[in-house]
Amino acid sequence: MSLPPPALSWVWLVDLERTVALLVGRCLGGMLQGAPTSLEEQDTAYWLKTPLFSNGLEMDIPQLGMWTHMVLWW
Asked: Domain span at residue 16?
């Protein structure tokens, strides 16, 4: 099945659109998925998942504001 001549003049544009969409989709997918875990992260995964390291800093809002102010002041 062949396309009429007027349609053949813009088929390359549809191919370009699909190619760019595929490229952007793969780039965004890679950004969302992130880099694979390193060997060090795999070795220390148990410790990184413990409550000691997994929840971040435990401080109230005024303390956090004080630390932010001190960091920005330096």
From this structure: 5-32+41-73
